[in-house]
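Q: What would this chain look like folded?
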Amino acid sequence: MQPVNIAEFEPLARERLPADTFDYVSGGAGDEVTLRENRAAFQRIKLRPRTLVDVAKVSTSTKVLGHGLTMPVLLAPAAFQRMVHPDAEIATVRAAARAGVVMIASTFTSASMEEIAEAGGTRWFQLYCSRDRGLTQSLIQRAKEAGYTALCITVDVPRVGRREKDIRNHAAVPGEAMPRNFKDRLNLSAVPDAQQGSAIEKFVSDYLVESLTWRDIDWICSITDLPVLIKGILTDEDARLAPDYGAAGVVVSNHGGRQLDGAPATIDVLEEVVEAVAGRAEVLLDSGVRRGTDVVKALALGARGVLIGRPYLWGLAAAGEAGVATVLDLLKAELELALALLGCTSVREVTKERVRR
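A: My prediction, written as structure tokens:
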């Protein structure tokens, strides 16, 4: 059966993926309270449609960091995509290019950043800062040389959240899905099988720098002319600091409920982040977006656009590039309809008055 909405790709992905891989993609941290709350919070927000508006022509297009997009949707960074489908990130970036949206490539991609770049499209590079500062600088330089147009620094993983499904499954990455950006710098043929706990958690934890601070953001901004976004902001205090340290944008994110369980839903803190940034940087949001109406709600509360993660991975698992493309097509169709029924002819007309909590 052809899915008629994004959620219907999830059971298709469950059918096609090994149980441990599906759990890795769809699971969250701890009791998964934040994972569930990301969806529940969107559902608590109600829309306020205006009627008797000419909506014969509706545009979903917008700009994010100066990039023209067909809709205010970007593909969030997701690691090890060859675990999900043999075509991995190559399929993802091709589908993003066809749809006219940005793909954000993870530090831990199963295809190298250069291979992804060869597939075309508009790309940003998501950066996990390494304990080896030279490696971090090398990744930034390679991203620039490969044509990536922004850096998205993930800052909410000083340590990996306790993802209990992965621990029970002894989650590991097969050799073919290993992060290819490190083949010349790290002697890794595969993430080792875990005797206890998650091998993925061990690999990522061994790579990450726990002492990452705003001084590191300042350093990164000083060595690149690429615009820098800070991903993982949930408070007005951090949002206010981000532009001071050179950030061109922030991503309001709780890592899809995969880090601190009990953290708030992103849509619930979006307004305070937007107010704190005060127009000095662009604000994006991820975590929990499943419908075109979710996109509208985020726009109404001040986001320039949203990132989706699990939905396109479900599409990738179900049908490769075509599955990712269908997910994006469905989301765009829902967004266009939501705008029309809301009485808006473009995303620019979606304001705070269009929602009620």
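The mean pLDDT is 94.
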